Amino acid sequence: MGAxxxxxxxxxxxxxxxxxxxxxxxxxxxxxxxxxxxQPTIRNLRKGPSGxxxxxxxxxxxxxxxxFQPIDTAMDEEQVQLCRREKLRFxxxxxxxxxxxxxxLEEYRNVVEELLSGNPHIEKDSARSIADGAMMxxxxxxxxxxxxxxxxxxxxxxxxxxxxxxIDIETKMHVRFLNMETMALCH
Length: 187
Description:
Elements: H1 2-18, H2 22-36, E1 41-47, E2 53-57, H3 58-66, H4 77-95, E3 102-103, H5 105-116, H6 124-142, E4 155-156, H7 157-164, H8 169-172, H9 180-186
Antiparallel strand pairs: 1-2, 3-4
């Protein structure tokens, strides 16, 4: 009884902290166990400044996934904008690896190369060109026409907000929970 009570209390705390329902937490826990190979943590693919791989616990996993919750239809416009800003800040921090408040060309190249590294048809030089082109476009959006000798220092969070203006991130950046019983019938 004590362990079951403790587990249900932990789930209630996670519901309050993340906004997921207990059923959603259960589904995410099953997925976490698949990803971790039934281990208590998932090793992060990105290396930290120390050179050691980070490990993500289930609670950390839920906290990250909470950024990807769909917009609640009961939210007013101000709440939707706040949610949008939080999602974009989370995304910004994924690129800003040194946490200096600016995404440099090198940081952006690293992320693009990492994302495209699994595609055997895209070479590292191509990924680098994609990142360079995207950074040039970001500069034109944020700074406008630049002088030939002008250097773009990188994307600030305000620049990042400008870049994403008009893009419906609220519906594109979210988790969908599928009916797992139906999914089981497909395999």
